[in-house]
Specification:
The chain is of the alpha+beta class and 82 residues long. It contains three helices and five strands, in the order αβαβββαβ. It has helices at 4-12, 34-38, 61-70, and strands at 19-24, 43-46, 51-54, 58-60, 76-78. The strands form two sheets. A three-stranded antiparallel β-sheet has the order 4-1-5. Strands 2-3 form a two-stranded antiparallel sheet. The radius of gyration is 16 Å and the shape is globular.
């Protein structure tokens, strides 16, 4: 038998995902690596250049905004919709 309370609880906790294009200006980075700690599926670290890089160019808007908020170098941005 289906546990309806489990089903409805999960239905109410779903997150709406809106994928947006993210851009990164690695030369503005101060090396804090906060973006990688927050979103390792979006941001990676290049040990040779000692700079971040994008693993993907599209990601959940909320995840990108979280990374933008924590970035002291302001090197993460959302691309304009259009």
């Amino acid at each position: 038998m289906l546990n309806n309370s489990y089903y409805y609880q999960n239905m109410n906790n779903t997150k709406t995902t809106q994928l947006r294009e993210v851009s990164l200006e690695p030369m503005a980075c101060n090396g804090c690596r906060g973006c990688i700690e927050l979103n390792p599926d979006i941001f990676g670290w290049d040990d040779l250049s000692d700079r971040p890089f994008l693993i993907t160019d599209k990601a959940d808007e909320e995840d990108i905004r979280d990374a933008m908020t924590c970035c002291p170098g302001d090197c993460i941005s959302l691309q304009s919709e259009g």
